[in-house]
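User: My advisor, Dr. K., asked me to get a structural model of this assembly before our group meeting. I'm new to this, so sorry if the format is off. These are the inputs:
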Amino acid sequence: MMSYLIKRVLMLVPVFLAVSVVIFAILHFIPGDPIDNLLKVGSSPQARAEMETRYGLDRPLPVQYAIWLGRVVTGDLGTAIVARRPVADLIAAALPHSLALGGLALLFSSVLGVVLGVVAALNRDGWADRAIMGGVLLGSTMPSFWLGLILMLVFSVGLGWFPVSGARGWSSLVLPVLTIGLGGTALVARITRVSMIEAAGRDFVLLLHAKGLSPLRIQLGTVLRHALIPVVTILALRIGWILGGAVTVEVVFARPGLGTLLIKSLSQHDYPVVQACLLMLAMAVMLGTLLGDILQAVMDPRVRASLS
Amino acid sequence: MSLLQLADVSVSIGQVALLDRISLSVGKGEILGLVGESGSGKSLTALAAMGLLPLIGGRITGGAVAFDGQDMAAMTEVQRRSLRGRRIGFVSQNPMTALDPVTRIGAQIDVVSRLHLGLTRAQARARTVDLLTQLRIPEAATVAEAWPHQLSGGMKQRIVIAMALAGDPDLIIADEPTTALDVTVQAQIIQILGALVRERGLALLLITHDMGVVAQLCDRVAVLYAGRLAEEGPTAPIFAAPGHPYTRALIGCIPTEGMAKGALQGIPGTVPGALAFPSGCRFHPRCPQAQALCRAEAPQGNPACHFPGGADV
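Assistant: The format is fine. Below is the predicted structure of the whole assembly, which you can bring to the meeting.
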């Protein structure tokens, strides 16, 4: 298990390098230039050249990449060209908001999704199953920005329970978490239900019945355990998505976060910030995958056996 | 007195009638072989005997299953559950899929004696190791800590047998316990089952499609064809003079020593599906001696044949 862990972490290094090349390259191939945003209208070409030299933009691309990567590895994300502040500060300001929103949304959708999936599977084809699956279908087809607006209209404007927007205090988190979490809940509930039903038909489950165990114990003790293996994998893959994919919700609720920071700096062509944001998101995806693989090995001895 | 008795049991799944008036009985110290080709309803009979038909959406539509003289239909579900694992042990067909892959071997056996015999964790484990040793599993204590994927097929089937024995049952229902195993291992498993019956005075309902196993092991045999009983009785007389042409055909499928090359007979055709059971005697389309009467009218009695012993054909 330990050697697997080490091997798995080392495997992230080439992935990280590949991702960094892609992120760096994409940004330099899109048209537009951060210098345009900095220069006053009508500035001379000399002023422009001077500015490019200052930020190293006149050097060949591979050299720029090497310099950037060298700094990133040592923890220096550079200085934002437009915002004129260290990128690390901008990220540090945005990341906690994204982590709180993403983490709570993930927790919410996992817990509610698994519970709904289990209830649906236990009442297969009954009214509870139909109601849950109907609701889930509705939830998964509804765009999150629209759901956000509806929730805002009902709970903030109508009932006045939660603030309309902003990021002050826990109460302002409720609606954004609900908005993001409900979509995830739908996904988790569907997968939980399907894999519970699939697992319940396995041979060893019949044998548990033949051993005289109670159906509820079999369902919650064994069937759910097997059903959760694919669910955990899906959830781990969503970690990265939830950090960066919350951007529409962040905009709707006017919350700071990685998504907002990314969009803002993209529109200003603020390369260092965009690169850092993308790198954060890529790392979240990589760590999520790593976590998923580790959890799978913890949950299934066959996976562990195939590793060693 | 018989321990397990099925009297005219009919079973349906949904609207489809699959078993038609099956009567069987197994007593203590007795081995009943239930034979028939795939699709004849053997496994369904086993599920009916354990009261597990609802799991596959089936139900008993006629007749009664009695265990130790008590009608199982009259019991509550909790009472039936307390029979399963405790008094009725079940050995399933494929040991590769019969064990929970994410639970250690020992825990899967321990659970039975903890649930039914009220043993503590330590007592249950001691009992499990003891059982595994009796089933001639070397280093039983180590095996109890192993995961299912670390064991061979024959070993896994012994584990499944140990699970069936853990509640100290009176009856074991074994559904084709050797079908998925290598030939050499098959013989070992059959030996173990036979020894259990002799040593512990268990009743064994052995479901198989192997007439060779029946001849070797069973006291009585019941032949099932397309959801109906073709013939039932003590093994030796039936093998000496099979009354039903289907029984005769099955016996003809056993390879014997010194048999000429190509002399082994098969039975032409396949078992009909439940949606297309033939009229009259369900075996008539494959029967070498079928008459007009066989197509028109279902035969009654034992053997269920209009022309038992092939007389007057």
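One thing worth pointing out at the meeting: The longest strand of chain B covers residues 2-13.

User: Perfect, thanks a lot.
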